[in-house]
Specification:
Low-confidence stretches of chain A: 5-24
Strand content of chain B: under 5%
Number of helices of chain A: 17
Shape of chain A: globular
Number of domains of chain A: 3
Number of strands of chain A: 22
Strand content of chain A: 15-25%
Radius of gyration of chain B: 24 Å
Number of strands of chain B: 0
CATH architecture of the largest domain in chain A: Roll
Structural class of chain B: mainly alpha
Distance between the termini of chain B: 5 Å
Distance between the termini of chain A: 44 Å
Mean pLDDT of chain A: 92
Strand order of the largest sheet of chain A: 8-9-10-1-11-20-12
Low-confidence stretches of chain B: none
Structural class of chain A: alpha+beta
CATH topology of the largest domain in chain A: Dipeptide-binding Protein, domain 3
Oligomer: heterodimer
């Protein structure tokens, strides 16, 4: 027999053996997600890429003291215990919050989580000069630590956080601060970039592999402290795909199992391919913040006129039903929504109000962007706003700029932009501060905060201060509702729609509940075999 | 010859300086700044200022530029503001992907275009010429991102035989179908850009050469037509190569849209992300490297041209 024949025979046996052998092990179940982000969110603690970063990386690799309850779709998501099992205001000091930490939590590297680790993490966010201090983490954390004064470890499993002013909403802010492993950080000499390449947290997934700019792979953490949230699939693969059509094609061709934000006009096509389309209300606001100092919106009648001029049903239709009409600042399922004044479509009334205010035609200028996180479809939507306002007696100039430039206008406030009468930056409304206070509290007047148009009202300030100093939830809810109703009464914005955050997924996925939140829990998802 | 190459390379220095300076200025003239993308949209002005100080972005522009230049000369391109990774790593990774795409696209384009152009040039004025010219015009005019989407719809979504986006992994393995399949649609799309231009250049070069006296002489000597064509092609090649070289340079930097549609992690994609986030170090590094590639490609084309056609003297 020649060697050639021998080798052929050998190959034949090998093939037979391969066919006869049982499968080595059950197929690994993988959930592949097409994100809207242009890059992989930062893995070194608090992520970048906006709330999408928190959604897919932050809350999967890490935990915060406080987490969001994402298990239900029928109510607005609220906070729940995370690394802290409970928290309460110090009965002797209303500026001191006490957090009880969870026992037996371990970081992915095996080190136990204690009060000292939480203090270490806060110093990473805040104490310039500390070896673990990180400018980027400082930048991300800063938005949630505006009122923070200091932290101390009371005992092994208790920390106390002091605020500059009484702050009944502090636990909400704690939910954005991801806790990383000090041991792993020490192993890489506190180099945040090295840490990002081999991160260690306490979250339901562990880091597996990353190709910068292309993919991040996480695997199930079988030892996760919340037994109910140990992932029901083996691996989670996150792929940045900023182009909506790229994401849609990737889902249709079976390259990914889940995509964020398909374009509304692609939804019928996705449905016809048996893809599951899910959507739900969440705390998002597509509106215009108005200039209360310069120009016509200083007059309440003009603000109300603008709100009466919009037929919000047209916007919902334009977005293929993937939006809720925005009659007020909050989505109706928010506990403190209350009974706000309803701005129905009434162009005749709008015109009459403008007449009364002596502003007809009423010239206004809006700063808008061509794209951007949460901006939905800014150009056609702004064109429709312009058309409807003009039909009611306004004369609208749209100043179009790129997202980054619009954010700058937003940050600088009306002071530097007196000719702009309104800005169209979509905002998240996940808690009372972010959903209301920052827009109407005089202490938040830009550039110090998000009160872009310098709305000032002593009554509103008093209500905000009262809410922050009220630690009884029922009593606080009453004040919060009052604030929301007052915002509507004063027409502090021009409200248009709330996004419904559509996402599309393969028919093989089961077990996902879309929470009314910017964040979502992926852990219960199971994947049927092909 | 050697002296000529050295002189050309020295001449690249002012080009590099000019390119980087203009790029620096443009980024700072545009509203918005890199720190914005590091911060949540709601961050207050104090935080922005503090972060600018921490990143050294609060100093005067010329100081920042000179410092950057000093580091680049010593080979340090700095770190990305957006993700903290070393710029040189970002460029290496993405450039590798783009070189792969651009090289294959130019080769595909050249093969198609040269055949088309030669046929059209030989048959100048006939219906065949008009068809080829029509195809060439179509190639130049079709927006390539549109073509990309159409190809994705046909081959990924409907037929489901090719992936719609991304790559198979970090390192390209030319022997693995798993890896190759990701290249096919982007290469086809990208090659359509230069096909039109190369075909038209080939056509005019061939038809010009075919009318020259030496062709008549060759024919009079009784050479078979295919050998006549061989001589004609050799004479027509230099201008075609020059155009091809330029096209390669264009593809290296100009495939932003196509790379974005295919989520292909190349330099165009990197550039577009860097522009949106005002990531100056990445932007500067990438543009500088691309400019240098353009210079070197042009030089290489010049050298090849003079080798093929000794009448074009260099030096």
């Amino acid at each position: 027999m020649t060697t050639r024949r021998l080798s052929l025979l050998g190959a034949g046996f090998a093939l037979l053996a391969a066919l006869a052998a049982p499968p080595a092990r059950a197929q690994e179940t993988v959930l592949r997600v097409g994100m809207t982000a242009g890059d992989i969110p930062l893995t070194a603690g608090i992520p970048d890429q906006g709330f999408e970063g928190w959604r897919f990386v932050g809350y999967n690799l890490y935990d915060a003291l406080v987490l969001w309850d994402l298990s239900r779709g029928d109510v607005a998501a609220d906070i729940k215990p995370g690394l802290a099992t409970s928290w309460a205001i110090d009965p002797n000091n209303n500026r001191r919050w006490i957090f009880q930490l969870r026992r037996d939590v371990r970081f992915h590297d095996g080190s136990p989580m204690t009060a000292a680790d939480i203090v270490w993490n806060f110093e990473r966010f805040t104490r310039e000069g500390a070896p673990q201090f990180n400018p980027r983490q400082f930048a991300f954390a800063r938005a949630y630590l505006g009122n923070y004064e200091g932290i101390e470890a009371v005992d092994e499993l208790t920390v106390a956080i002091t605020t500059k002013q009484p702050d009944s909403l502090l636990p909400y802010n704690m939910s954005f601060l991801m806790m990383v492993s000090p041991r792993r950080s020490a192993e890489v000499n506190n180099d945040a970039d090295a840490f990002a390449r081999n991160p260690s947290g306490t979250g339901p997934y562990r880091f597996a592999r990353m190709v910068p700019g292309e993919r991040l792979e996480l695997v199930r953490n079988p030892d996760y402290w919340d037994r109910d949230r140990v992932p029901k699939h083996d691996r989670l693969v996150l792929l940045p795909m900023p182009e909506a059509s790229t994401r849609t094609a990737a889902l249709l061709s079976g390259q990914v199992d889940w995509i964020e934000a398909p374009a509304p006009d692609a939804i019928p096509r996705l449905r016809s391919a048996r893809m599951q389309i899910v959507s739900n209300s969440y705390p998002h606001n597509w509106a215009y913040q108005l200039n209360f100092v310069d120009g016509p919106f200083a007059d309440l009648r003009v603000r109300r006129a603008a709100n009466h001029a919009l037929n919000r049903a047209d916007f919902v239709e334009m977005l293929g039903g993937m939006a809720l009409p925005g009659f007020a600042n909050l989505t109706p399922s928010t506990p403190y929504y209350g009974n706000p004044r309803r701005y129905e479509y009434d162009p005749a009334r709008a015109r009459a109000l403008l007449q009364e205010a002596g502003c007809l035609p009423c010239r206004v200028t809006f700063a808008i962007s061509t794209s951007g996180s949460g901006q939905m479809q800014p150009l056609p939507m702004n064109e429709l706003v312009k058309a409807q306002l003009e039909a009611a007696g306004f004369q609208v100039t749209l100043q179009t700029m790129d997202w980054n430039a619009l954010l700058q206008v937003g940050r600088e406030g009306r002071g530097r932009h007196p000719t702009v009468n309104g800005i169209n930056i979509s905002r998240s409304l996940q808690d009372p501060f972010n959903g209301m206070f920052r827009f109407v509290w005089s202490a938040q007047a830009a550039p110090a905060g998000s009160n872009w148009g310098h709305y000032r009202n002593p009554e509103m300030d008093a209500l905000v201060n009262q809410a922050l100093a009220t630690f009884d939830p029922a009593e606080r809810l009453r004040i919060l509702t009052q604030i929301h109703e007052k915002m509507s009464e004063d027409a502090v914005m021009l409200w248009v729609v709330h996004d419904l955050n559509p996402r599309a997924m393969s028919p093989r996925l089961r077990g996902f509940t879309q929470a009314q939140s910017w964040f979502q829990d992926l852990t219960p998802i199971t994947i049927a075999p092909r | 010859m050697f002296g000529y190459v050295i002189r050309r390379l020295i001449a690249a220095i002012p080009i590099a300086l000019g390119v980087s300076m203009i790029c620096y200025l443009l980024v700072y003239l545009a509203p918005g700044d890199p720190v914005q993308t590091l911060l949540p949209p709601d961050a207050d002005a104090e935080t922005v200022d503090r972060l600018k100080r921490l990143y050294g972005l609060d100093r005067p522009l010329p100081v920042q530029y000179i410092e950057w230049l000093g580091r680049v000369v010593s080979g340090d391109f700095g770190r990305s503001i957006a993700n903290g990774r070393p710029v040189i790593e970002e460029i290496q990774r993405s450039l590798g992907n783009t070189v792969l795409l651009a090289t294959l696209s130019v080769l595909v384009a050249f093969s198609i275009a040269f055949v088309l152009g030669t046929i059209a040039g030989r048959k100048a004025g006939t219906w065949l010429d008009r068809v080829v010219t029509g195809v060439a015009v179509l190639g130049v005019s079709v927006p390539n991102y549109w073509l990309a989407i159409v190809l994705i719809i046909i081959f990924s979504v409907e037929l489901m035989i090719l992936p719609s986006s991304g790559t198979a992994g970090e390192r390209f393995d030319p022997t693995s179908w798993e890896h190759i399949q990701y290249l096919i649609l982007p290469v086809i799309t990208l090659s359509m850009i230069p096909v039109g231009i190369i075909a038209r250049t080939t056509r005019s070069a061939i038809s010009e050469v075919m009318n020259q006296d030496f062709v008549v002489t060759l024919r009079a000597n009784g050479l078979p037509e295919w050998r006549v064509l061989k001589h004609a092609i050799k004479n027509a090649l230099p201008p075609v190569l020059a155009v091809m070289g330029l096209q390669f340079g264009t593809l290296m930097g100009g495939s932003i849209l196509v790379e974005t549609v295919f989520a292909w992690p190349g330099s165009g994609y990197l550039l577009s992300k860097a522009i949106l986030t005002r990531d100056v170090p990445v932007l500067q590094g990438t543009i500088l490297v691309l400019a240098m590639i353009f210079v070197v490609t042009n030089l290489a084309v010049d050298l090849i041209q003079s080798t093929l056609d000794p009448r074009i003297r260099r030096g």
